[in-house]
């Protein structure tokens, strides 16, 4: 199996990633629509939701943390005291454990997701993800020893920093860069908003993703990165501390 698991291609090209219908526990509100591509370290999973136009779910208490990014159709998320979120392709939302909300889809809708167990969130709520983020220089720069060229300028906007599960969620962008094949230090979900990336695999093969595509890379997977233009993405990153891997 490839180290970079492609969850969606905007071009409509077929995927080699296998998906399996499964629920994330007995109280999963999207159980009937969920297809999982990866599940493992840190209680994290990634895949897609196929929602029909009749979907309307009232959720008294959301059971886990989940990032949803719409790639086709339209998703509405309503919470008490806030204007409804209308999510169209290339927009998303983070739902945290305990949130009360209503989710509906007025048309057939395809969503990519990244979910994680998060029993006691330190940052509860419902948080929209937008491409026009409040970018700031990233705190952690890439070490020069892993780069095959100039050091890039990276920026991020962390919408959620969930320290209880070592996870951050938000929007990121970077100038072009080239990185060696190495063990990926985090579980990472990415939805590409701009540009494209070529992920190098240890066997010399390359997985290319472009604007509108979504991909997941597990922590520890050996993979490289090469981009020749600005890349922007929604991201979920989670570091699984040593001894907590499953």
From TrEMBL:
What positions does the domain (S)-ureidoglycine aminohydrolase cupin occupy?
Answer: 168-235
A Pfam family that this protein carries is Cupin_3
Q: Please name the SUPFAM superfamilies in this protein's record.
A: RmlC-like cupins
- What InterPro entries does the record point to? RmlC-like_jellyroll, RmlC_Cupin_sf, UGlyAH_Cupin_dom
Protein name per its UniProtKB record: Cupin superfamily protein
Query: Which species?
Result: Herbaspirillum frisingense
What taxonomic classification does the UniProt entry list for its organism? Bacteria, Pseudomonadati, Pseudomonadota, Betaproteobacteria, Burkholderiales
């Amino acid at each position: 199996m490839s180290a970079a698991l492609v969850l969606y291609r905007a071009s409509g090209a077929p995927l080699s990633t296998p998906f399996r219908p499964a629920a994330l526990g007995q109280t999963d509100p999207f159980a009937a629509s969920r297809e999982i591509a990866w599940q493992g370290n840190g209680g994290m999973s990634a895949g897609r939701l196929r929602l029909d136009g009749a979907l309307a779910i009232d959720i008294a208490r959301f059971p886990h943390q989940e990032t949803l990014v719409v790639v086709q159709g339209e998703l509405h998320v309503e919470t008490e005291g806030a204007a409804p979120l209308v999510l169209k392709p290339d927009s998303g939302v983070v739902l945290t454990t305990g949130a009360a909300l209503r989710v509906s889809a007025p048309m057939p809708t395809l969503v990519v997701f990244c979910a994680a167990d998060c029993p006691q969130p330190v940052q509860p709520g419902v948080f929209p993800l937008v491409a026009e983020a409040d970018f700031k220089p990233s705190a952690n720069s890439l070490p020069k020893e892993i780069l095959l060229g100039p050091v890039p300028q990276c920026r991020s906007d962390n919408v959620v920093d969930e320290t209880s599960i070592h996870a951050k969620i938000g929007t990121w962008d970077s100038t072009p860069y080239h990185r060696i094949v190495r063990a990926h230090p985090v579980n990472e979900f990415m939805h590409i908003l701009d540009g494209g990336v070529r992920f190098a695999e240890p066997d010399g093969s390359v997985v290319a993703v472009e604007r509108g595509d979504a991909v997941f890379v597990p922590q520890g997977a050996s993979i490289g990165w090469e981009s020749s233009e600005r890349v922007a993405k929604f991201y979920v990153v989670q570091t699984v501390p040593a001894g907590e891997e499953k």
